[in-house]
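Side project, low priority. Logging it here so it doesn't get lost.
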Amino acid sequence: MIPAGGSQGGGKEKGIHYPVLVNPRKPSLSRMPMKKPKRASPAKASKGRNISPARSKAASSRAAKPALRRAPAADDGKAIIRGLRSKLRAALLRISELEAAADTDFLLGIPNRRGFERELARAIAYMKRYRASGALIVLDVDRLKPINDSFGHAAGDEVLREIVAALTRQVRASDVVGRLGGDEFALLLWNLSETDAKAKAAALEQAIDELSFVFRGQHVTAGASAGVALLGPQSAAGRALEEADAAMYVRKASRRHEPRIRLVGGER
């Protein structure tokens, strides 16, 4: 069946209109008027957005979290830096204390051999630069071993302390008194001629010879022998120590010290 107004043939169909079926009970959508959506009033909009206090608090905390995280991070970084600086200061102080301990005789509180050799090297460097002069005296306590053997090392330590006190009284604040080891000491003296240096060595020997001690009721005296080496711009630390040490042994042989432990009350 061909609708009215149509044509039949093998050619191309023109002007064909297909019927549109419409439900008479339901109006067509194309014929229905479109209603514009109503915009809620500000009051209703705010009323519709009302949420519970708990949800509002949670939302506020979530919004504030980024700011809260950034502030503590900066404060924590400053605290870490302060802590690291404090640890660094403590470490540097500890290093300084260890270096001082490494250069100091723990018993007598004066430079040990390492510390004295360092001071001697600095002094010679100064003399080379400013054409200064000085003297090195090496001093050996003559009767310390018999005191240690007879009365113990505590007695020997007391003798050493008194000897250091006597040496310190004989020198200036700018001079250096050190312990090379055992019963051997060294003194670095500034601006002394050869004559003055030898006179100072003799005065140091006398100061130690005059010391006396009493151990277990026995009267004990010590003694010392000193050797001198002059210092100047051409000096070397190692060579100067060798010269003063050799001069000390020559002096020691000439004095011919022997153990002199006098008893009190006939008790030995």
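Brief comment: The first helix runs from residue 42 to 48.
Revisit when time allows.
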